[in-house]
Amino acid sequence: MLFTKLFAVTCLSLCPVSSFSLPQTNTPTCTAATRQTILEGIPNGFNAVAPGASAAFIASLPLIPSCSLTLFINGLPGLQVAPDASTTRNSALLVRQAFLRVTPSVPASVDSGNGTTRSELEIDTGLLHTIALPVTFHAGLVFNYLDNCTIESVVGILTVPTSVLGIPILMPDVVAAVQELASQAAAMS
Known about the structure:
The protein is an alpha+beta fold.
């Protein structure tokens, strides 16, 4: 955790500021278009290769101080990996180093009309945008917005991996498998 904080502080203070510009978030109501514009910046922000560009984008996200990040990986129960905005940003900076390319689905984001906007992304892994690794995963990101367009929480629903060496991987339903094992164990006792 200390490394993550030192890396984030160093990068944010030493790297040049990028030209990323998100919509103003001090409006009294948060429209679907504004929420979608914020989310649609994620692929460009994470794909940026100029020094400090991704860090500047992540720093510009309108997270409230208590904004948490919870991940659901391959159908398992949620794991809160970041309890506040600072650790959410630091986590994003850290994992971004393992991404080669982030590709949004079409459309890039879908707004549900209740302050929640979702983005589906395919992520090719690689080190520092230069060394490709043969693993791809899928991330469904759900951003929960407040009325002023600040982000209250982020939920990631991940399927890891979706392909290895370009070959699609069909993940088993982990929850169903655990339930089946539990019922078999109960039947044996």
